[in-house]
Amino acid sequence: MATDAHAGGHGHSLVQHQFNTLEQQRESNSLGMWAFLITEGMMFGGLFLCYTLFRWWHPGAFEEGSKHLDIRMGTVNTFVLLFSSLSMAMAVHAAGERNKGKMLAMLALTWVLGLTFLVVKGFEWNKDFVEGLVPALNWSFYLEPKNAEHLMRLAQHGLTPDHVQMYYVIYFCMAGLHAVHMIVGLILVGAIFLMGRKGVFTNGNDQPVEIIGLYWHFIDIVWVFLFPLLYLIAGFHPFAHGAG
Amino acid sequence: MASHTDTHEEHAHHVVPLKIYFANFAALMVLLVITLGAAAVDLGQWNLLIAMAIAIAKAGLIMTFFMHLKWSSPLIRLFALITLLFLGIMFLFTLTDYVARGWIKL
Predict the structure, then answer these.
(1) What is the 3-state secondary structure (H, E, C) of B8-66?
(2) Per-window interface: A 24-53 vs B, CB < 8 A
(3) Hey, is A124 helix, strand or coil?
(4) Per-residue pLDDT reduced to its tens digit, A80-103
(5) Which residues partner with A138 through β-bridges?
(6) Closest approach of chain A CAs to the CA of B71, in angstroms?
(7) Is B29 on the interface with A (CB under 8 A)?
(8) pTM, full prediction
């Protein structure tokens, strides 16, 4: 197989006709994914810029908004995503070693971890919805009498619930876009798992796994920035009772 | 099924020792704990700077080892880093406008 790859015109060569060598082909394939990740970085970058401006204007509103997020769940999800990056890297490693069983096991683990992340997010967003912290759908948190002290604390800083609402709009845009990427990631990892069962990535053609891996790690990097920026603004109080 | 020992292995086909991945994951876990620890202490403006410094370190570790930049060609490294340049232009030129108009105060 490996020697075939360099022969060129052979019927089942790994090297496609527009490339001279396998090395050149691999580099081109990777470069394509990295170019895509640049555009992804710019898309998320626009949201990070929006975040920067609004936090600069109303730091107190961001602090107040962040207090209602559950740091424990955010921490669990950060761990889950970092762990999934490890299992993804191990899947790429197994594909390179042509170890089909291990590759499939690691892809399955990555997929389950990705799903775990989304399930935890689902619980968080459901809690936000019940509490009335979702702009447009249910923004009633500050209208409820039991939350009057929150309203007063805002007023002391010259802020209104509208300022906090902007934090939540940005929170849901950023975490939401990230979750959409996770769903796409689950579809991609699921697809290469199903294809990989037929052995197409463990015969020397392991690069598709590596390229999907690049995308997966990118999503992880975005979360690495989102976690402190969204959850940890108001500080981390390990012994405080609950959030808010 | 020949074993994969062609001359291009070094560049085209880098199977990284697993222990590098484990060490990288351990380092990421340590940084996660430091992030939480640093957030538990009120350091004023420094909290944000420390959190961002740790996030950048984590991103660097993921890119270097998990995303294989350590073993990638200069062209791919350039592509990875050029994102920072583009983001820098977007942030710098937007923020200069906001600051110059006095819409945000330095």
Answers:
(1) CHHHHCCCCCHHHHHHHHHHHHHHHHHHHHHHCCCCCCHHHHHHHHHHHHHHHHHHHHH
(2) 26-27, 30-31, 34-35, 37-38, 41-42, 45-46, 48-49, 52-53
(3) helix
(4) 999 999 999 999 999 999 999 999
(5) A134
(6) 12
(7) yes
(8) 0.89
